[in-house]
Recover the amino acids of this structure.
């Protein structure tokens, strides 16, 4: 369960996040939808405690991120916007490094890693150095690395960015699986169809503010548009930065 | 602690796979000094030796005016060369190190019993002119003294009359301490080995990770940033230490290839020297690891950090440079100053003197204290929000 309450964050004059409030529940996929530069990444970065909000509160499973950031990070699995693999290490070494940083015992680490390797279908690349990986292979490795500690809450920043059709389909199936396991999945995207297809709930962000927080059906009803894309355009008030 | 160790091993393993880092930390950094040292010293020593011991070849102008003088000089090892037209130009152009000219009225002055003038022409600003000039002047002085004594004896006087003061020299240096003097630059090479040994790692572990955007996922782990920093500093220090150990050992081995005995010097550095030198340099390893990381934390990219750290390399030169122009008398407080203490201590060790335990202790305590202070500052910079965000 992820909750953000009235978050604000400014960089100099620019108000990147200007009063964002929403919640992402367990066993649901919540989509954070907005055009480029709307404040999605900054909001997520405050959620996983990389940044401190100027004001507002972040709660992860009821733990206040300002009070106990370490416990919050332990409860989260994060795929940041920057995938940042270690290119001189193999995929397996990348995953194991993070597992050890979480303090996971060797036997459990092997078990978790094997499960993720199968789920993400990445056995063929496991013992290759990540230098020269394709975008899809990089995302798979980064996701396995982020989830090796079996977190209840999963945050994915633009996970399908730059992936081909097959890789995107695989990743969507993986996310549905996470939901089926009862996890709380929050992901950001600027791609309409993807959000519409996957999400139980859509939080639309524009200019640092939440302009809608509904189920896909309710969103259509609220805007009076049968097409979700039209609903979205109506909500953010422009067609800028959209991708179908 | 466990997480710091995890970071440490990952960084060590990852960087051992990086050819550039391994080359600079474990080959270039530690070996450039000793190799340069052996090649340079051997060239210089054998060059000087041949000038100091071989026959002294000097063009002589007007040799026919002073056959006796020339004969006497020949006995002392002079090999007169044919006269040259323009001796002033010849020494300026380095065609000759030194030229001897005997004026036409030499014989006349000699028979009259007046001081007979000879000219020694040289250019003191030319490297290599010193030794032959000194040798020639020495030969002339000896001949002059001999002839003066003979003249006094011929008049029934004691030659001692002409030398009211007898100087006897008592050089307190030992072969080892003389060797210490020509090795005074050695502490600088040790410092450089430490600096270069850790430099690429320091850049890679902070600025490099930032550039490759891997700090953000790393910081998303439930590990306090200072623990990550400790692991990284440990990895940098390990590479620095490896580099230092290789340098010290390489120098000890290199010393064996020097013709030091011919110089009346001894270059006897054993296991004791290795152990003491490394012990004394330990705090510098920590200071540089932290300092390099701190500087790299301000850089946005690998290249930027490389530039900054290139500038910073000037710092360790300062004490060495100062001490080579100002002969400083060592005081105990100097051991409290990082770099200066190491410079002093290593110089003493090279000269065959032991460094007092108290001084080593002072250098260790103050050095590590300086590293700790810098470490706190670096940890504070590491906490900054901007550090993790590359874009």
């Amino acid at each position: 369960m992820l909750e953000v309450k009235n978050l604000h964050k400014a960089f100099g004059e620019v108000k990147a996040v200007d009063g964002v409030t929403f919640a992402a529940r367990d066993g649901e996929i919540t989509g954070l939808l907005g055009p480029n530069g709307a404040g999605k990444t900054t909001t997520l970065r405050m959620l996983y405690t990389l940044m401190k909000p100027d004001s507002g509160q972040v709660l992860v499973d009821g733990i206040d991120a300002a009070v106990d950031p370490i416990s919050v990070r332990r409860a989260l699995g994060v795929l940041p916007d920057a995938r940042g693999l270690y290119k001189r290490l193999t995929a397996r070494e990348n995953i194991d490094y993070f597992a050890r940083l979480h303090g996971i015992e060797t036997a459990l680490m092997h078990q978790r890693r094997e499960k993720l390797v199968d789920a993400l279908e990445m056995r063929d690349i496991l013992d290759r150095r990540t230098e020269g990986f394709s975008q899809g292979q990089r995302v798979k490795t980064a996701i396995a690395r982020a989830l090796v500690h079996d977190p209840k809450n999963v945050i994915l920043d633009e996970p399908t960015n730059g992936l081909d059709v097959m890789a995107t389909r695989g990743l969507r199936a993986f996310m549905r699986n996470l939901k089926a396991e009862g996890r709380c999945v929050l992901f950001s995207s600027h791609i309409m169809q993807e959000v519409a297809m996957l999400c139980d709930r859509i939080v639309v962000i524009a200019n640092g503010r939440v302009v809608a927080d509904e189920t896909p059906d309710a969103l259509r009803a609220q805007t009076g548009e049968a097409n979700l894309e039209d609903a979205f355009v109506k909500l953010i008030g422009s067609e800028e930065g959209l991708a179908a | 602690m466990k997480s710091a160790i995890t970071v440490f091993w990952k960084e060590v393993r990852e960087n051992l796979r990086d050819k550039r880092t391994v080359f600079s930390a474990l080959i270039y950094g530690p070996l450039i000094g000793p190799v340069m040292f052996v090649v340079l010293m051997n060239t210089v020593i054998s060059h000087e030796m041949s000038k100091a011991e071989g026959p002294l070849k000097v063009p002589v102008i007007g040799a026919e005016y002073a056959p006796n003088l020339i004969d006497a000089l020949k006995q002392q090892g002079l090999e007169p060369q044919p006269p040259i037209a323009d001796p002033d130009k010849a020494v300026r152009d380095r065609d000759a190190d030194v030229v001897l000219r005997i004026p036409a009225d030499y014989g006349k002055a000699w028979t009259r019993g007046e001081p007979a003038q000879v000219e020694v022409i040289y250019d003191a600003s030319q490297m290599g002119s010193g030794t032959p000039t000194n040798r020639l002047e020495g030969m002339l002085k000896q001949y002059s003294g001999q002839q003066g004594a003979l003249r006094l004896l011929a008049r029934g006087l004691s030659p001692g009359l002409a030398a009211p003061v007898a100087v006897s020299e008592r050089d307190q240096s030992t072969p080892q301490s003389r060797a210490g003097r020509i090795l005074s630059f050695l502490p600088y090479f040790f410092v450089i080995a430490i600096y270069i040994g850790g430099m690429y790692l320091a850049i890679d572990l902070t600025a490099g990770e930032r550039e490759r955007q891997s700090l953000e996922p790393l910081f998303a782990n439930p590990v306090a940033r200072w623990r990550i920093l400790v692991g990284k500093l440990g990895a940098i220090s390990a590479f620095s230490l490896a580099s230092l150990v290789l340098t010290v050992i390489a120098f000890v081995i290199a010393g064996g290839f020097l013709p030091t005995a011919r110089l009346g010097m001894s270059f006897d550095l054993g296991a004791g020297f290795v152990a003491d030198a490394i012990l004394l340099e330990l705090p510098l390893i920590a200071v540089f690891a932290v300092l390099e990381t701190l500087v790299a934390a301000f850089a946005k990219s690998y290249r930027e950090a490389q530039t900054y750290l290139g500038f910073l390399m000037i710092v360790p030169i300062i004490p060495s440079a100062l001490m080579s122009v100002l002969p400083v008398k060592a005081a105990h407080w100097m051991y409290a100053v990082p770099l200066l203490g190491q410079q002093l201590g290593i110089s003493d060790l090279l000269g065959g003197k032991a460094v007092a335990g108290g001084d080593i202790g002072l250098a260790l305590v103050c050095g590590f204290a300086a590293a700790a202070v810098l470490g706190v500052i670096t940890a504070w910079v590491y906490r900054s929000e901007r550090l993790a965000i590359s874009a």
